[in-house]
Amino acid sequence: xxxxxxxxxxxxxxxxxxxxxxxxxxxxxxxxxxxxxxxxxxxxxxxxxxxxxxxxxxxxxxxxxxxxxxxxxxxxxxxxxxxxxxxxxxxxxxxxxxxxxxxxxxxxxxxxxxxxxxxxxxxxxxxxxxxxxxxxxxxxxxxxxxxxxxxxxxxxxxxxxxxxxx
Length: 166
Hints:
Distance between the termini: 26 Å
Helix content: 10-25%
Structural class: alpha/beta
Shape: globular
Number of helices: 4
Order of helices and strands: EEEHEHEEEHH
Strand order of the largest sheet: 3-2-1-4-5-7-6
Radius of gyration: 15 Å
């Protein structure tokens, strides 16, 4: 099983959604949602402190032995010296047992060698892929193979929509 997580923040709360699917080119999914109260304030460079507890809380509803990989909205690394971003901290929290792929819509300039740009469909604007526990080129290929003809894969676009849905 493949899991993808995203979180939306509102009124000192966070809505975290996990989309579960089995094949990289699949458009069928199941999802779970959780609202968290009293979340951490946003601190630049320490975003993981805000979002990681939300992901872990929802992840506790799954049998970790069945998870092939986890996708997060963001970065695994924040620089080329392997400073962890959200994805890296998640990987560590999971005892380095489940690979994590970061898919970001916005570039992070302090990282070059540990990230790859991915153009999907006819988009001129890339996604930025980082990974840990899986080769970066393999992670890029998996995101490339996801269903959808546009920049953002169908399931990741749906995930974003679900986080904002009331």
